[in-house]
Design a protein that fits this description.
2 copies of one chain form a homodimer.
Chain A: H1 11-24, E1 33-34, H2 37-44, H3 48-60, E2 64-67, E3 71-74, H4 83-92, H5 97-118, H6 121-136, H7 141-159, H8 162-183, H9 188-203, H10 207-232
Antiparallel strand pairs in A: 1-3, 2-3
Helix pairs in contact in A: 1-3, 2-3, 5-7, 5-8, 5-9, 5-10, 6-7, 6-9, 7-8, 8-10, 9-10
Chain B binds a DNA duplex (30 and 30 nucleotides) through helix 3.
DNA sequence: CGGGATTTATTGGTAGTACCATTCCCCTCA
DNA sequence: TGAGGGGAATGGTACTACCAATAAATCCCG
């Protein structure tokens, strides 16, 4: 009798629960290697097919990494873990870039204030580093935006809370493309000025000003993005994949 | 030749990308029914095994629902979509309850202020409803905590940002058990008083007070939780599952 | 003719097998 | 001592067979 036998849960769901516990209790350690699929399947008393489904879920979520000919490993940190789910969340709930920016606007100012309060010298140096990287990449939009977001990540890190940091790294990634498009019609120096003010405020350990400067920047960015999004909406209609044929509510039979 | 043939991506990964696009372009609509697995596999030119892996990923993430004998359906809203990933995130990065509470403390006060600003009459009624539900459940810890969290969810909803709302619903769920334990050593009336103040402040449309009252409550809760967590740490060593045997860095062969 | 019970086809769930390409380890040989 | 080759192990995919749950179609009886 495999695993347990609660309710009517999938074997897959049970397996995932088992892995969760194994990680929680330390039997599996980040970076560690898991037994081969064939062995695992046998010791769990399930087929390899079922086991693979569970492993695939974990891999897509970024919990583990699988390499042919090598093995399966438990990932260490997992920044990417929320990425896929987040994308679907945005798709399914129809969350717009505007709403994502609103979320940033709600959270990031407070985090900037917190950063001003508890940033270490290294944190501040890191923020400064990203600022200079932005200056150096004025002409490369993609690079410029990448360092823009890293700047914000550095502020998150300085604020010292990984939960918000991880959550909003996903939000940032979701906005990446759109921001890159926007950046092409905005003077880099404009963006830089706003970032410099934030950096200076944090450096001065001025919580109120940090909060205000971050708000100032994000309000500006939000409005720019909204306008860009309007223009882009015309291009929404992409090439279709016709592979999928039916989608009726259950064909008669 | 199945799907496409970029790089060395899994068939599973490709399939997920395809589904993502099908959802994005509207070929698949929330609530709609997907073709049977056998049909889908054929039209995509992949085996059912591979297709099922992709579908399983989507199901666990909460994107779709599968029912034997019935079919596969695309979910509408997806509150639960971040749940599993978030749990692993907490596990892998070793995030503590304290850090989760810190995250709440960073975000929820600002959201309370926003709620005071833009809550509709219905929103305020909903918050009040949860407050009364808490009062009615003074003696049932689990129920009391459930409505406690729903109270906060209602505040989120009133603030009007789904992104933060969805993200923190996961944080709340992660904290649920621990809060329930804590609530057993705290006078319910104490918690109620703090919640009433928040409600009154939002009702008065007083942003500053809403922010302060929410901070007051969460600071209190955080400290209670930290103390409870200390006591609990002794019980961390749970029964182990010995099914998994090996975890060495690649057995010699 | 109507409605409940039954049959039947469909669907997702699981197991198992076979084969492939990749990767790594170890052994051999120069 | 070093380089190369062979073999074993690993994850990836496909295919088959069967099970259990579901819902639609059918039958049967009042």
């Amino acid at each position: 009798m495999p695993i347990a036998k609660r309710r009517k849960e999938d074997v897959t769901v049970k397996l995932i629960a088992v892995f969760k516990q194994l990680i929680a209790e330390g039997t599996l350690e980040p970076g560690g290697r898991l037994p081969a699929e064939r062995e695992l399947a046998e010791s769990f008393g399930v087929s390899r097919s079922s086991l693979r489904q569970a492993l695939k879920v974990l891999e897509i979520m970024g919990v583990i990494s699988q390499r042919v000919g090598d093995g399966t490993y438990l990932n260490k940190g997992a920044d990417a873990i929320l990425r896929e789910p987040m994308e679907f969340l945005i798709l399914l709930d129809g969350i717009s870039a505007h709403e994502l920016m609103e979320a940033r606007l709600l959270v990031e100012p407070e985090l900037a204030a917190r950063a001003a309060l508890r940033a270490s010298e290294e944190d501040i140096a890191e923020i400064h580093k990203e600022l200079r990287a932005m200056e150096a990449a004025k002409d490369d939009h993609a690079k410029f935006v990448a360092h823009d977001l890293l700047f914000h990540q550095a502020v998150f890190h300085a604020a010292g809370n990984r939960v918000t940091s991880l959550m909003f790294s996903v939000v940032h990634k979701s906005l990446d493309k759109l921001i890159t498009m926007t950046s092409q019609v905005v003077e880099p120096e404009h963006t830089l000025t706003l970032h410099r003010r934030i950096y200076q405020a944090i450096r001065k350990r001025d919580q109120d000003e940090s909060r205000r400067r971050m708000t100032e920047h994000l309000v500006d960015a939000r409005d720019l993005l909204s306008r860009a999004a309007e223009k882009q909406s015309h291009f929404q209609m992409a090439a279709r994949i016709q592979t999928l044929k039916k989608k009726e509510p259950r064909p008669s039979r």
